Amino acid sequence: MAPVNHSQGENVGESSPSRASIRIRVKVADACRNRVRYALRALLEPVAIEPEWVEESEGENANLYYGPPEDRLEGELQLAYDVSAPGALLGVELPEPQGLPTRRWEGEAWPVLFSDVNGNPDVVAGACFLLTGVQETIAGPRDQHGRFRAEDSVQGRGGFADLPVVDAYRAWLVESLRRAGFSPRLRHWGAGSWALCPTFDVDYLRKWRPGMVYRETVRNLMLDDRGEELPDRIARFREFVSDVLSPGDAYRSALTRMIDEVRARHATATVFLKAGAHGPFDVKYSLGGKWIRRVVGEAVEHGFEIGLHPSYHASTHGRYLAEEIEELRELAGRRPTTVRQHYLRYEIPTTLRLHEVSGFTIDSTLGFSTQEGFRRGTCLPFRLFDSENDRETGVWEMPLAAMDGALFNRRDYSVSEAVGATRRLLDRCRLFGGCAVVLWHNVLWDEMDAPGWGRHFLEILDYASSNGALMASLGSALALWRGDSKS
Question: CA–CA distance from 207 to each of 189, 299, 330 (Å)?
Answer without folding.
Answer: 37, 21, 25
